[in-house]
Amino acid sequence: MPAKESRTLSWHLTVPDGCGVLSYKALATSGMLSDGEEGWLPVISRRVMLTESISLPIRDAGSKEFNFQKLLDSGTSTTLENRLVQVQVVSQPAWLTVLALPYLMEFPHPCAEQTFNRYYANALARHIAKSDPKIRRTFDSWKNTPALDSPLTKDADLNGILLEETPWLAEASVQSQARRRLGLLG
Question: How far is 3 from 5, CA to CA, in rounded Å?
Fold first, then answer.
């Protein structure tokens, strides 16, 4: 590059699937002088991770049989890659609804729909909190514990791509803070 000029340089990289982080080093030299920069680039996969949840209601004692047809059919796909099968047992599925309330209450746009969502979430939270004193005690016991942390901060797959370098860290922090404010509802 000629002296006293600046130019923008660009190049294309081919990154193989499964590469989580790249390091780079850029050097500029001129005679006896040089300058450089080194850093990390998180690589977000071009593949999309999908999570499918299936409710498996078990109400009474005994055995029950479930058919995971989509999982069985996934073996014929040429592009699908199964990462893991995880079974999560939730004795009170209503808790999942309660954990979703901050999303409804703290949406940033002041339109009529969001005003209704805030009202509905507050009314529902108040009803739930007053319906059973154990709920209030549970939230009080969860304060300042990881129980209300965002699932994004707990997901090992996401943590593998330098969560601090991605936009999801901010979202996970906001989600954790919102969940911690659940104790204020009602």
Answer: 6
Model confidence, pTM: 0.40
- Structure confidence at residue 137 (pLDDT): 77
Task: Cite the beta strand spans of the chain per DSSP E.
Answer: 21-30, 33-42
Q: Rounded to whole angstroms, how far apart are CA atoms 82 and 50? A: 10
- What single string gives the DSSP state of each residue in 36-87? EEEEEEE---SS------------SSS------HHHHHGGG-SS--------
Per residue in 87-120, pLDDT (tens digit) is 777 777 777 777 777 777 777 778 888 888 888 8
One-letter identity of residue 43 = V
Q: β-strands 21-30, 33-42: how paired?
A: antiparallel
